[in-house]
Amino acid sequence: MESIPSASYSLTLRVEFPHRAGALGRILTAVGDAGGMVGAVDIVRIGHERSVRDITVNARDSEHGRHIVRSVEDLPEVRVIHVSDRTFLMHLGGKIEVRSKMQLRTRDDLSMAYTPGVARVCQAIAEDPESAFNLTIKRNTVAVVTDGTAVLGLGDIGPRAAMPVMEGKAMLFKEFANVDAFPVCLDAKETEEIIRTVRNIAPGFGGINLEDISAPRCFEIEERLKRELDIPVFHDDQHGTAVVVLAALINALKLVGKRMEDLKVVVNGLGAAGVACTKILLAAGVRNIIGCDRGGVVHGGRDDLNGSKRWYAENTNPEGITGTLSDALRGADLFLGLSVPGVLSVEDLKAMAEDPIVFAMANPVPEIMPELAHGHVRVMATGRSDYPNQINNVLCFPGIFRGALDSRAREITEEMKLAAAEAIAGVIPEESLVEDYIVPSVFDERVAPAVAEAVERAAAESGVARRVRKDEEREGYSGMPGVLH
Ligand SMILES: NC(=O)c1ccc[n+]([C@@H]2O[C@H](COP(=O)([O-])OP(=O)(O)OC[C@H]3O[C@@H](n4cnc5c(N)ncnc54)[C@H](O)[C@@H]3O)[C@@H](O)[C@H]2O)c1
Ligand SMILES: O=C(O)C[C@H](O)C(=O)O
Ligand SMILES: [Mg+2]
Prior knowledge:
Blueprint: E1 10-18, H1 23-33, E2 37-46, E3 50-58, H2 62-73, E4 79-85, H3 86-91, H4 107-113, H5 117-127, H6 132-135, E5 141-146, H7 158-177, E6 180-185, H8 191-201, E7 207-210, H9 217-228, E8 233-235, H10 236-256, E9 264-268, H11 272-283, E10 288-293, E11 296-297, H12 307-315, H13 325-329, E12 334-337, H14 346-350, E13 357-360, H15 370-373, E14 379-382, H16 397-406, H17 414-426, H18 447-461
Helix pairs in contact: 7-16, 8-9, 10-11, 10-17, 16-18, 17-18
Bound molecules: nicotinamide-adenine-dinucleotide, (2S)-2-hydroxybutanedioic acid and magnesium ion.
């Protein structure tokens, strides 16, 4: 039977059934027979005749969930009162909120936090704009900006539908690195309009995290904003992903005993993430990368070369391979998927080199599911939290912004990204590396502080830090309260 990921599809069934021995057991058996995993069972009401309980069940997906519910409904004398999807319940009213740091108890408090006292603070900032880092939320606040055009692998679902992901990113910023991030979902798709809007909202923020903006517009939007703003602008899907992929590859190569310069790498999906990962791998010493898009291998002979496709034709595929993704994969050491679900087959895996590495990172459903790939790959990773080896940009963005904010960096440089990748990889000592453990868990409390510290140092070395702290001034990072300043 297929294994069921932990809680990605979790239902709570409220059921009413006869209050007698064995009745609950029959319901739980029906759930199990339908392939569901029973979690908590809670009492709602116990009566003389009938009882009501909440039964939490993990299912593979929504179709499987419906099948489980039908199996329970079909039992004699059992009534399913209602079914709630725990993931939806978690989203009711959104996932984050803004809170005050202090209480307003007296007129005195009010006259300092607000009029008239606040006016003196405003004037001080007007005279010295840099003091906004000391006197406002700027130094710890990041805007998570999207236009909703490349939300996960779901594509262009628009700014409203993008909100749950952006709220999620804000939660992760807070949980892992104590950064206050705010979702900004723009109802605009035109490059100039997005640039203008972000520039206009920038004064209140210490950094801009661009998220889920589709290629090729994302490249120009990021480049222009980097040039025009004096705070870090970082397109997470490009650089966060690239940093984590590099970290994972550094560790995977230690396991399989191969070197960057000897690898044959196939990148599938040449959008925001694919292009940035290709560039960081080239910078790290990989020589043989083959890019594939919907039309197969990108090579100089194709008649649809424009933008990044032309760049691929000129800078990758040194052997001049042509054909399909399957052709490219023959003898490949690494498959890097940043595309869409299900495009990789078991046959493709069998044609790869010895000890193949597969990073199937499309979200929420990877290019091949780990259970299918099992036995045909040496190292397997996805972007999901419900399988081992989660290669997800969440390993990068909280720590990289923590380090950038703490150094009051003007930008995030290549050196800061490489330092972040080394820091993530270095969290796992070489002797602890195994196939299912090439990247630390996102819950590993060492990750964000290690990334932040490496990034803060690299910011100072690259000359983009407004503030350079000595080691002894750096008390700590991350979710540790009270150590930000
Ligand atoms: N795990 C992670 O941390 C992580 C990070 C970033 C992106 N991703 C995933 O990578 C995917 C791409 O994200 P993006 O931000 O680069 O989006 P994007 O829209 O910029 O790029 C997607 C690219 O995939 C191409 N594509 C579509 N179907 C294809 C196919 N059958 N074969 C090859 N290419 C195909 C599109 O033409 C496009 O160029 C998404 O599924 C996203 O969830 C994962
Ligand atoms: O959001 C994620 O889980 C990772 C990434 O940013 C994506 O767009 O898929
Ligand atoms: Mg994303």
